[in-house]
Write the structure tokens for this entry.
Amino acid sequence: MPNNTSISTNVLFDLKGKDPSFAAEVKCRSGVDINLCWHCQTCANGCPFSQAMDYAPNRVIRLVQLGFQAEALGCSGIWLCVGCNTCSIQCPNAIDVAAVNDVLREMAIETGVHVAQPQILDFHNEVLNSIERYGRTHKLEIMLRFKFRKRDWFSDFGLGFKMLAKRKLEFLPSRIRDVTQIRNLFQPEADEAAPCKIKI
Ligand code: SF4
Ligand code: SF4
């Protein structure tokens, strides 16, 4: 059983100021009916990272159901989620918890709340930068740019050297034939989430 932070019972019953439109927007954007969750905790028990999360997956769902927007968007659980889909596969109600976490990460960035795990966001951004440049990932460059952001050059030096020696890391990036098609995916579009911005 995960040992996570929990909101006290008093706070849970104090729903004043909580935003009911938050759950509706998450449902609309993720396509997941979070109201089907009966809090069996199967997702939390199967999640390989729930012990490290402040709110385990079932608790994040609960925060959303109750309109605790700041807590859900500001928690570390949504960033420690690696999208392995174990929770989504095991949920008896077929709730796609990983898709909900995806939407919550997007909303956290959009609303400008303090990101609980900024280094994870930095890493995501470097992976996306690499895909935009080459159409695929160049792992050595991703790691070097990530290290540069952290100003941390030497902590994984030995491991990186071993990977290079075993040719697990390529020195030079390879590029797909038509990288423009991939770059087009990164062009900003009209606010896709606009139809889901529900005010109750
Ligand atoms: S497994 Fe599904 S129903 Fe059970 S707590 Fe997780 S999301 Fe809710
Ligand atoms: S998708 Fe995320 S929340 Fe679900 S089991 Fe994997 S790491 Fe845990």
About this structure: The chain has two domains: 16-114, 118-185. The pocket of iron/sulfur cluster (ligand 1) is lined by residues 37-43, 57-58, 61, 91-93, 95, 97 (CB under 6 Å).
